[in-house]
Design brief:
Layout lengths: L11 H8 L2 H18 L12 H5 L6 H4 L9 H20 L5 H21 L5 H15 L4 E4 L3 E4 L3 H13 L4 H23 L10 H27 L5
Antiparallel strand pairs: 1-2
Helix pairs in contact: 2-5, 5-7, 6-9, 7-9
């Protein structure tokens, strides 16, 4: 029985879940929960996809969020998407520092860009291109990392988006418009965040504005102060025998 538990008596799945950064954790949870609700027929995909008319004329504003949460019913395809979502979202969020300001700003940029571009390619669900944009950014920032596809093909990280695009083309037999759109959005962010500054005296036009940073840093400061006060109170409390 003890072998089934992790350190401190936690289940490995629970440990894995709480080790994820907060944005990745809730995005993964919402994605799985949305597919469960569709599978149980509580909601339907027709209530989730993005449509300009549905959002801005019928005022169904939840679609601006739900379009990024639904990937597929409960099947192997969903498992594949959740794996890439949590893995590369987690890596990017962890590398963005303690404050979630930079990563949430990246998500805001990517989601807004994809919503603006979606009418051009007729994509009702935008979770896959959002995940692809994060994969692209991570792959460009880790050029020396070596990866393997099914243990058969070994390549460095910058080729990952193109390998996934080719894999999707073979499996589905159609040009993966979602992967292409994600790469375009991801490349714009990568260029202005990692290439442009070195060419223009450190200017970073896509960095979060100061008011956005203050919003998250003040929240993180309040949480840290509360945790410290809790620890002090616990240490000062008399021992009960």
């Amino acid at each position: 029985m003890a072998g089934m538990l992790g350190a401190g008596g936690d289940f490995p799945l629970e440990t894995w879940f709480y080790e994820m950064p907060v944005c990745t954790r809730w995005w993964t949870t919402a994605t799985v929960a949305t597919s469960l609700l569709v599978q149980c027929q509580v909601i339907t995909p027709f209530q989730l996809f993005y449509s300009f008319r549905a959002v801005f004329i019928k005022h169904q504003y939840w679609r601006l969020l739900s379009t990024f949460l639904y990937f597929a019913p409960l099947n192997l395809d969903l498992l594949f998407h959740v794996f890439f979502l949590q893995r590369y979202s987690r890596l990017l969020e962890e590398s963005s520092g303690r404050s979630p300001a930079h990563f949430t700003w990246l998500l805001l940029y990517a989601t807004t860009s994809l919503i603006l571009l979606s009418p051009l390619v007729s994509l009702p669900f935008l979770g896959s291109p959002l995940s692809s944009s994060l994969v692209y950014i991570w792959s460009r920032r880790n050029p020396e990392t070596r990866l393997s596809l099914l243990g058969l093909l070994v390549f460095t990280a910058p080729y990952l988006p193109w390998v996934l695009m080719g894999f999707s083309l073979v499996i589905h037999g159609t040009v993966p418009k979602d992967e292409i759109m994600g790469i375009v959005v991801g490349h714009v962010w990568y260029f202005f965040s990692d290439v442009y500054p070195s060419l223009h005296n450190g200017s970073r036009p896509l960095d979060p504005p100061m008011w956005w940073r203050r919003l998250f840093e003040s929240t993180a400061h309040d949480e840290s102060a509360a945790a410290i006060n809790h620890d002090i109170a616990a240490a000062a409390a008399p021992e009960v025998r």
